[in-house]
Amino acid sequence: MNRTEFTLSDVHWLMDLLQTIEVGIVVLDGENRVRSWNGFMENHSGIRADEAQGADLFQLFPDLPREWLERKLHTVRLLNTRTFSVWEQRPYLFRFRNRRPITGTEAYMFQNITFFPLTDQRGAVEGVCLLVYDVTDMASSRRQLEKSNAQLKRLSQTDGLTGLLNRSTWESFLQTEFERHFRYGSEAALVMLDIDHFKPINDTYGHMVGDEVIRQVTSLIKFNLRQPDIAGRYGGEEFAIILPETDLEGAECFAERIRSVIEHQPLKCLDQTIEVTASLGIAPWSLAYQDAEQWLGAADQALYAAKRQGRNQIVVAPLSE
Ligand SMILES: Nc1nc2c(ncn2[C@@H]2O[C@H](COP(=O)(O)OP(=O)(O)OP(=O)(O)O)[C@@H](O)[C@H]2O)c(=O)[nH]1
């Protein structure tokens, strides 16, 4: 038998195969009318082959992205070439419900689509075939992985108790801010805050209450932040805040608001009501700081001056020139 000759059985088997294959096959004529519609398309669209046959594809699926699809089909016909659509750019063309048990969390089937020209014996394009691949499992696991990676990144950057940036992440932000201000010389300030006499709270009420105090002080700080401010949990009951584009007056105003609200707002921690105060140190940005550590050191010294001078107060680091 010549390799290009088929028996009737061969053709019958081929048709069977195309009917049952787990890939959608759609053939469109020059007017976008359906010429072939296999079992995959029947099962997922609910439209039988005899209903689809001869129908305009855009009437069968009014929500298809018409302009985009017509452009794709036009390219295939004009250039007599293949083209593709991948799920990363367009999650699906045909809005089929996802019925896979493993990836049941996805509402719709993700699809990769190959478009290729069907030519007559002289090579003229007669129609376009669309192969629709169900890539839901792959797309879904990729999306899950991306989600987990983003969550891991967030967890590795934040502090579990307060949700603020952890020390190392905050320090890397400080480094970036330092370099920005060193180059452009705009205003900025650093604020360090430490809860006063925190050890006795732990010793008297236990660590659970101590943790709750830290959480509630965090909420008070967060409530007073502006969008560009960068707050981190620097140590146990110590917080550090970068205030970009803020002069000394602005930083003092911010620090006083926080000091005052902490002093005047009794904290309801589990079944205890606890009153705390905090000490704060401010270091306004200065070109005299050679590196981020010096700037941070100045804020830290101001904080400890506030502690030494009696706590529940704000000290500003002496301005270096
Ligand atoms: N509950 C709780 N306690 C913590 C945490 N991290 C640190 N601490 C405790 O915080 C206390 C800090 O105490 P000190 O550094 O002596 O400071 P202080 O008692 O606040 O006194 P001053 O800062 O001088 O006003 C220690 O007892 C630490 O064990 C935490 O995440 N949760």
Automatic annotation (TrEMBL):
GO MF annotations in UniProt: diguanylate cyclase activity
SMART domains associated with the record: GGDEF, PAS
InterPro entries: Diguanylate_Cyclase, GGDEF_dom, Nucleotide_cyclase, PAS, PAS-assoc_C, PAS-like_dom_sf, PAS_4, Rev_trsase/Diguanyl_cyclase
Domain GGDEF: 186-319
Pfam family, one: PAS_4
E.C. number(s) listed in UniProt: 2.7.7.65
Catalytic activity from the UniProt record: 2 GTP = 3',3'-c-di-GMP + 2 diphosphate
Essential cofactor(s): Mg(2+)
Residue ranges annotated for the PAC domain, each copy included: 90-147
PANTHER family named among the record's database cross-references: DIGUANYLATE CYCLASE DGCM-RELATED, REGULATORY COMPONENTS OF SENSORY TRANSDUCTION SYSTEM
Descriptive protein name: diguanylate cyclase
